[in-house]
Amino acid sequence: MNQLIIGITGTLGAGKGTIVDYLVEHKGFAHYSVRAFLIEEIKERGLPNNRDSMVLVANDLRARYSPSYIVEQLYEQALARGKPAIIESIRAVGEVEKLKEKKNFFLLSVDATPEIRYRRIQARKSSTDDVTFNEFVANEKREMTTSDPNKQNISACMKQADFSLDNNESFEHLYGQVEEILQVIQKKEKESKKRENYLSWDDYFMGVALLSAQRSKDPNTQVGACIVNSEKRIVGIGYNGWPTGIKEDDLPWSREGSYLETKYPYVVHAEKNAIANATTDLKGATIYVSLSPCNSCAQLIIQKGIKEVVYMSDKYKDVDVFIAGAKILELAGVKRRQFIPHTDRITVNLKEN
Fold first, then answer.
1. Which residues are 268's β-sheet partners?
2. Of residues 271, 308, 330, 352, which has the active-site annotation?
3. Distance between CA atoms of residues 262 and 286, nearest Å
4. Taking the CB of the first residue and of the last residue of the chain, which one, N or C, has fewer CB atoms within 10 A?
5. What Å distances lie between residue 156 and 97, 102, 267, 353, CA to CA?
6. pLDDT tens per residue, range 270-296
7. Catalytic: 271?
């Protein structure tokens, strides 16, 4: 899994800290808190450590720098650490919008009834939570909605959450929801990740050439060719065989005997067939061929303006016509390189599994 960064928003006392603790203790997450960031800033400014100061400082930082300033600082810290992270207490729309631009970021929201949440904040005995129930409700109402992206807008943040949790029941119920969410995130990442074992361009085009070679009737040597333009589009394919209209058994396939009793004066090489079958001008194109070209094919490759030859086998490199083929390609400035596969084999299933 790539580095996962989760943000959490929600109503006051809904259980954000409980979720954070679970992810830190049981899932190895690093914890980054907007609340802790603000407390440090409050101390530096010499302000009282209460919710009014927290809201005041948060709104001031967002207005002075950007709506997402605080969470961006925390996100960069998390990214630098290189492990899964949870950013707690996201409360402004600008923060959510910025974080959602990042890779592998998901926003959770958590909620519970006001009565349950008030009991929880009283139990944690934080100085910022030392308020009456009416003050608690008033504080939350003030932070729930605003049209200013720099200010607290918990309601809008919760609406943009990727996942919502209900914390009106037991810890086990809450933890079960967290586990389900992590499984969904892992599945999403797996589904969105590109295949690792896809074909390289060279493997793909040489594969087409080799597949074309399977059409050859030559019992000894099957050669295929595939021509590709500068935009990686196939513009011609061919294999070695008789000229069009001549039946497979009308001429000899033999390699031995008098010249006219062999295949050599009659067969059309794969390169020539691919060029003859081409659908467009071939200037600047690349030809993939399973056997390095002979002199005759090299001549036609040069004349058609093909600028690169990628060959698989050079088994006839000591035969005169193939020596000549390599020589004139070099003199004409046509790049000639031997194919280096990125995979051992390409399997094509013609029947459904």
1. 241
2. 271
3. 31
4. C
5. 11, 19, 74, 49
6. 999 999 999 999 999 999 999 999 999
7. yes
